[in-house]
C-alpha cells in the first residue's frame, strides 16, 4: 500500500500535478497508517532513492558493504532519472562541448585556410553541385577531409548538451523549490569510489609480469570477491574457481598474449618454466 502511494506521488510530482501541501498531507497519511509498525518499513514513504533508510534485516552469515536496494517497480528500472548533482555534471558537459566548438577552427586548420571571395560557390563546388573552371568534384571527396567528422559530431553534441543542461536546470530548480537535497557530495563520493577499482586493475597489470597470469588472476578474483562483501568460505571458493576457469579459457585455451619474461617463473626448472610460460 505504502509503496503504491509512493510510486503515485513520484509520478504526480514528475508531471507537475502535486504541490508541497499535497505531498505533506500524503506523507502524514502514510505515516499514520503505519504508526503501529515497529521496524524500519514504517518509514517507507520516500520520493528519492537516496532517502531510503538502510535495512538491517540481513543474514548473519552474509556480510556485505553494498547498501540494500530500495523497493522499485519493474517499469522504473528502465526509467531515466536525474539525481542530485546532475545539473553540475550537465554544466561540465556543456562547457566541454563549447570548448570543442571553439577549438574546432584551430585544430582542423580552418583558421589558417584561405577561402575564396565567392564562398557560396566554393562550398557548392566542394559538395559536387557546381563546376569551377570545368572541374567537377565528387560528393564523397569532401567526406574524406579531416574536418568533416568533427563538424558532424559538433552538430550533434552542441544541441544535445544545451538541451540536457536546460532540462537538468529545470529539475534542479524543482528540487530546490520543494526543499529536496541538491548537494553533489553523494555523487562525487560514488565517482571517487569507482577510482578504487581502477587502481586494482592497474595493480593487476603490474603484477602479471611479476607473478604470472595464473597467480595474478587468482589473487585478484579472490580479493575482489572479498572486497564487494562476499566474505564467507562458500563465496571465496566460488571466486577462486571462477578465476581458475578464466585462466584456463583465456590463457591455456585461447592463448592470449602475456609477458615473455615473468619473475616468478625464472625460479622454476627449465622444463616447468617453459610449460608455465606457455599455458599459464
Quick recap:
With 280 residues, the chain is mostly helical. It has helices at residues 2-15, 20-33, 86-107, 119-126, 139-142, 148-177, 185-227, 233-253, 270-279.
What does this structure look like?
- There is one protein chain.
- The protein has helices at residues 2-15, 20-33, 86-107, 119-126, 139-142, 148-177, 185-227, 233-253, 270-279.
- With 280 residues, the protein is an all-alpha fold.
- The chain has three domains: 2-78, no CATH class; 86-177; 185-279, no CATH class.
- The longest helix is centred in the last third of the chain and has 43 residues, at 185-227.
- The model is unreliable at 13-20, 30-50 and 55-61 (pLDDT under 50).
Which secondary structure elements does this structure contain, and how are they paired or packed?
Elements: H1 2-15, H2 20-33, H3 86-107, H4 119-126, H5 139-142, H6 148-177, H7 185-227, H8 233-253, H9 270-279
Helix pairs in contact: 3-6, 7-8
- Sequence of secondary-structure elements: HHHHHHHHH
Distance linking N and C termini: 56 Å
Number of helices: 9
**Helix and strand composition category:** mainly alpha
Note the main sheet: none
Please describe the structure with a list of short key phrases separated by commas or semicolons.
280 residues, mainly alpha, 3 domains, 9 helices, 0% strand
